[in-house]
């Protein structure tokens, strides 16, 4: 654990120093997107890795945060920090309304409900296109910064805060109870733990950081759109990043996000083929190393 913390600290220091070693704004932009997707993937890992609940709708929470913040800015003209707060609140409330009934169900129903929630949000955005911008997207008048380095530090700061909070929660008694509930909910309940309550709390925490990152992402990209924030493909990318990096690790999903975003950019000249190549490599890696990148690194270290 101590060695892991040292490695994480070194990586974070290297990232913080990256803008000052002469790399281009394009690379800084890629690192910024990795930070945002890292937060999405870490948030998803708390619910799946620890609570054992497969959420097929991470983009539902991301989308609520993004469009909540975007509408507050575009229609109400509120200050940017307040817009981000309202977007985060929208994700938390939406997640809470979804989780309370869904987590009382057993089997695959929770996953199906979260998937349907994404489809409903997509339809709502298209139906109310006059307000949301529909398939074209919703442009926002404000942005985080015109400076790529400043945007990167915003995203990196969010990544550090989210990672610290999620790791603290995961390593606490709360996290242990979540793991027990995820492995055997009946036994955990027999021990006196309110399994549903703990899972709802985990979902709300996941929704908070997903919504916060989604809200900030809007003001980084300058627009909220279905393709970039709500589409099922976005959710799949988040899930793959989390599993690829290492389930039940919190930190591992950041590695998965770095691989997916980085490989996608490197292979971009291949066009649509790049997505197939990245997906194939990710699938092969998961099949060969089911514990993900972080599990592989830990295995080599222990060996």
Give an overview of the whole structure.
The protein is mainly α. The protein is built from 15 helices and two strands. The mean pLDDT is 90.
List the helices and strands and how they pair.
Blueprint: H1 2-17, H2 25-50, H3 58-74, H4 80-102, H5 109-127, H6 129-132, E1 138-139, H7 148-170, H8 173-183, H9 185-190, H10 195-221, E2 223-224, H11 226-230, H12 232-245, H13 252-266, H14 273-288, H15 292-302
Antiparallel strand pairs: 1-2
Helix pairs in contact: 2-7, 2-10, 2-12, 2-13, 3-4, 3-5, 3-10, 4-10, 7-10, 8-10, 12-13
> What is the total tally of β strands?
2
How many strands, what sense, and barrel or not for the largest sheet? 2 strands, antiparallel
Point out poorly predicted stretches: none
Gyration radius (Cα, Å) is 19 Å
Tally of DSSP helical segments: 15
Strand order of the largest sheet: 1-2
Order of helices and strands: HHHHHHEHHHHEHHHHH
